[in-house]
Amino acid sequence: MISAAHAPSGRPHQIATRIVFFVMGFGVAAWAPLIPFVKARAGIGDDILGLLLLSLGAGSMLTMPLAGALAGRFGCRLVIVLAAVLLCITLPLLATLSSLAGLVPVLLLFGAGVGAADVAGNIQAIIVERDSGRPMMSGFHGLFSLGGIAGAGGVSLLLRAGASPSGAIWIAIAVIALATAVAAPRLLTHGLDKDGVVFAVPRGIVLLIGALCFIVFLAEGAVLDWSGVFLTAVRGVAASDAGLGYAAFALTMTVSRLIGDGIVARLGGARTILLGGICAAAGFMVTWVPDRHAAFLGFALVGVGCANIVPILFSSVGRQTVMPQNVAVAAITTLGYAGILVGPAGIGIVAQWSSLEIAFLLLAALLLVVGVSGRGFARRQ
Known about the structure:
Elements: H1 11-31, H2 35-42, H3 46-74, H4 76-94, H5 100-132, H6 137-160, H7 165-183, H8 204-233, H9 244-258, H10 260-267, H11 269-286, H12 292-307, H13 309-317, H14 325-353, H15 356-374
Helix pairs in contact: 1-4, 1-5, 1-6, 1-7, 3-4, 3-5, 3-14, 4-5, 4-7, 5-14, 6-7, 6-9, 6-13, 8-9, 8-12, 8-13, 8-14, 8-15, 9-12, 10-11, 11-12, 11-15, 14-15
Keywords: Membrane, Transmembrane, Transmembrane helix
Protein name: MFS transporter
Subcellular location: Membrane
């Protein structure tokens, strides 16, 4: 546990934490516009590209338990700075490499940086929020979403303006390096625990939190990977407008997170999870209405509903005593990433057996389970 002598205090630590979350979102999203260029340079098809992209998720999930242990023993600052260095080293390579033999290990390292930053950043956020005595986690995660929009949008604009992939990514690296340098002096030199445990099987309340994170991330991954397919194949939307479904989801999620701390303070964590689960479930059910505008509205509602559930779940980790907290953060983050990785494939299997509408209906049912289950542990904050 954290002693009073080591507790963070004041606005500087909060600002540094917000910067870290922005950098986390910015760094991983800056990679997205490079994917078509990687596919073209390597001369690979969609199937090989899909397998290649699994390297990123594998690197993240393999690193998360280690990142939790390192943050507990050596502090959040060291892990976050090392993660930022990994991003700055690997992104230029991803912008230039053309061989699978080179891309696979670099993507593993890039994923390792993403995973380490995710775990250590959330540990920092739990400590800072707990010290502040008020809800802050939704705002932190809102900065992650905002960073994602800035990273993907900024690199895309540079590419459209004529910059080379390498040139655009060096500008992104400058942003990551500068922002990390600004935040570093106020990042914590301690973590949640110092027991040095690298991995422990989730149990009790931690297993429940991880399972709920898995479902929410599964839903988010479904919108990312399947909203465009649903809009074009089922609702007849033009391919050029297929991305608007995810854009509606991302926009409403970002806005809802940025105002989410006030919502949690007023309603409490339990009620916010309940209402969020109902809203997200309703969003997937609205997509059943045979109208393209209803589909856009449905994906927007999913963004509103999912927005503040995961931040509340992470805050809950800081209150449980079943497992060492740095290990618990790593465990639920890993389970969440598993939802992103496994979810799209699972949705595809269900859609193949029945339809995308049925797959979305199953997601709605799972999100209702999240809403009801959240009342079992999330207390008013």
